[in-house]
Amino acid sequence: MPRIKLAERFAYRFSTTCPVRVDDINYGGHMDNARFVSFLHEARVRFLKELGATEADLGDGRTGIVMGDLAVNYKAEVFRGAELTIRCDIDEMEVRGFRLFYLIENEGAVAAVAETGIIGFDYGERTIGRIPASFIERVREYGKK
What we know:
The protein is α+β, with helices and mostly antiparallel strands. It has one domain (14-141): Roll (Thiol Ester Dehydrase, Chain A), CATH 3.10.129.10. The protein has helices at residues 33-50, 133-141; strands at 14-19, 63-74, 83-91, 97-106, 109-122, 127-128. Strand 5 (109-122) and strand 6 form a beta hairpin. The protein is elongated, with a radius of gyration of 16 Å. The chain starts with 13 loop residues before the first strand and ends with a helix.
């Protein structure tokens, strides 16, 4: 069976840490695959906050985001008590969306690599929206300081 094969990026501009708790563990004794996705969500929310945005508002008062796609390559088991480092970056910025790239590490070893396709969404009109120019500029400038 062919697999989706994601590549690690050379660099990620944002990093955060999250502890693995008992409710993140499945019947196999390791972190549940759906919990990996929840950790991606947590990292995305934190990264957007760092950029002065939220999932509901990228900075123009009306355009938020929805997820268009998700791909995850699981690389290693993760157990309760681990302190995960989740690295993120935004690239492939277009008028209506962008890609978010993630690397989840456990004590320096890669536990997962993931990507999400993010689409701008106008919550007032309930339609696909344009990514605000102010957000695009903040992404371009992030990490240059």
